[in-house]
Amino acid sequence: MTEGVFGRDSGHEQVVFCHDAHTGLKAVIAVHSTALGPALGGTRFHAYASESDALDDVLALSRGMTYKNALAGLDLGGGKAVIIGDPETVKSEALLRAYGRFVQSLGGRYITACDVGTYVRDMDVIARETRFVTGRSRDDGGAGDSSVLTAYGVYQGMRASAEHVWGSPELRGKRVGVEGVGKVGHLLVGHLVEAGCDVVVTDVDERAIERVVAAHPSVEVVPGAAALVGADLDVFAPCALGGVLDDDTVAVLRAKVVCGAANNQLAHPGVEKLLQERGILFAPDYLVNAGGVIQVSDELHGFDFERAKRKVTALYDTARSVFALAADEGVPPVTAADRLAERRIAEISRLKSILTP
User: Which keywords has UniProt assigned to this entry (predicted)?
Assistant: First the structure.
């Protein structure tokens, strides 16, 4: 999104600060919009430097979920939550269950799922205290790991981007740089290797690098994000944390396409215009990474993987529509995506004015 997402005056319906001294829980739940339905979005568990940083992150992420869910065609609003702390050291059953109690207290206005630092097994624990949780394990009646279809959706967005830039969705022979090979990134690498791409990766976690190299020995590893951004790439795929695309990054970026799984990749408003001026196609992050929310939302209706995968495959067509609108109106793709999402929110939310028995 291009306007209003980077500040605190972003029209949120509700922001809840959650604290349980006994378990050490400190969390923030942000409900941005319920215009299309309950606010669905994951819970991020991260060692923020301050509560202020956590608040800024959850506000931006929750607003992004409103647009993501709308553009994905879901009857769901946008929300997000963050738990403050290092998940490696402070996460516990008691803390997660305390968090689940706070989610339950919102009465279904917010439905949670996995995000950075939380996993399927965590959702199973949270589900012991609230029914408003998705992304649970198959054994617990859920959809399982949402990273699977998140990565697949990014791959579909990348195919649509390739078609727009090079005239064909074929990715064979393209050199793709993936920053961050964690839950989603390493699965994306699998799709790219299978498609015949030359893949270059980097990650701050050496364990993640070792895992992806063990699975795909052909990948090239470079030391750090700066080296990857400046490399000779066709596609740059940010799959770590947000804010990677700033003025300095765009100035040295050599790829013709940016398409990755990270949320809020634009460091500030105006970066999308810098990308456009340099002839770099930016596939809106909240469009191409919607596979995960599509997967977990399907869980609300009795999960069927093939049905969910068909919906995620359709992100290819949605991306094509966004690129076409951007070209017609002479605006960056993220602006076109915003307009399509806002149009759907306005049209569908208006139906609430029609009273039904």
Answer: NAD, Nucleotide-binding, Oxidoreductase
